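Q: Could you write out the predicted structure for this multi-component system? I'm mainly interested in how the pieces pack against one another.
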Amino acid sequence: MEEYIFHLLLVFCINALIAQSFNVFFGLMGLLNLAHYTLVAIGAYTVALLSTNNLVLSPLLLVTLAILCSAFFGIIIYFFSEKTNSSEFCLVTLTIALLIQAILFGFTDITNGPMGISNIERNKLIGVSLASTQNFLIFVALFTLIGLTILFLVFKSPVRRTLISYIDLPHVSFTLGVNSKLARLLSVLLASAVAGLAGALLCLDVSYVDPYMFSLAEIALVLLIVFLGKPGSFWGALLSTAFITVLPELIRLIKIPTSLVGQVNQLIYCSIILICLYFLKNTWHKPSRNM
Amino acid sequence: MLFINQELIAQLLLSVAITTSLYLLSAISLSLVETVFKTANLAHGQLIIIGAYVFYSLDAPQVNYFTICASLVVLACVTTFVLKKIFIEPFLSHSTELVLLSTLILSLMLDTIILLIWGATTLSLPETQTHIFKNLFTVNTSQVISMLSACILPACGYILFNFTPLGRALRAVSENSVSASSIGLPKSSQIFLVLFCSTILAFFTGILIAYDTALVPNLGFTFTFKAMAIVILAGNSNFIRMLYFSFLLSLIENVVLVVSYNSWSLPAIYRDAVSYCFLCGYLMISPRTPKIKLTRAY
């Protein structure tokens, strides 16, 4: 039972990081970044590739390198966000996602293609073994706390107002001399870094990565979390992450024939989300906007 | 040295024409909803695939075509009713983003339903069609129907939208639904009609896809993304631009598979990525599509 709760907490932490970083793109910047799971994949593959090449690296170093790689990739996304409008940005990020997906499948010498990379070991951190779930949960919780605090500061800082002013009234913002470029770059870099962090933690958690884990359909889950929590709302996204993480576990309690369990659970899961959406629809247009 | 297999050129051109017609039909049916509701139906690809699977199930046991058509029309009516009453109408008056989310949920549900009914195995129709033009290239009747319908259906749509009272009513609801309802245009029936047209067109595209490709359950998202890409690039539901980008997308997808360089050819898994890269490159250097107003996510 204890192990199960630890596992749930781990899933919550990783989902929270992915959802909040997507919330920065979508909720604050108005960008539907379809390459968000690509940022997670870059973090995960960085850790996987560095762990399996006979290099005994500290998990701290692995996570840092994953964050840096994803942040660097975030610069490319920032470049495209500046050059395109919101619809074109969807298309560009879709291209990036497909390209990276094809590379993960195609470069079999490096990524092992669809078979993925397995047996990723968690090395010791300052003499403490991360092999036990409890220790690893503390490690993940610590990084989640750091990642979420950084994003919380973005949500509560003047950067948020700058981003909102750029999206709502770009000409006024420009006339008033607001430097939105810097705010946008900073937000993209931080969100990408946090997505990379989530990827690194996910990889260390399951000790395995393959390209299917980061397919385009995965974006649906993160979109659901952000939409349910109301885009741009930090606490809303956190609450909906908890809800989406716990919901499949609650559905499992229903007795369903084994052969149909996966599909029926998914249908119940979608129906519950739809019912929630139906009852939440009236509160949809009441975000507090302190300009 | 760059090399293109000469013998395949005629067949390649035919493949390009067929794929163009499929992409064009899916983009048109998607843009129909997008133009009227100002939001995308993210379950559009799944509707196409449902059409394909239902057709497969009825065609495999040799049910006659009239029964198949009647069944698909009835299914389209039921689907449209459910889509309207549960997934679109309750949310449309609140926010277009809510419709995006509800249709996203629908897409996940439809994917699961496909898996439940037809399983995860790849299905394909036996090739029993009559082959024509055997000397130059091989083309069967379903492929000819596919290409012809890509010419005829958009033309019918154009006439419907521009030269009929119904088309004018639809445009009025699309441009200003409040004014439209104040002059007595029934919004609810207009919504139903648009959704029905889009669904029936999606099912029809699905039938053509069933003839052309092997069916796998997760094909829906691919078609949604491709149709979305074409609609975004075309901008403002411009038919000529949609045709142009459908052609461009299918041309690149097909050409990359037959071009080789010093006996090296691009693996098939890069097909989609290369075509999207090209389109994005085009987007960066070409005169821009009309700028869509920047809006926040909520």
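A: Regarding packing and overall arrangement: Strands of chain B lie at 2-4, 131-132, 139-140, 259-261, 264-265.
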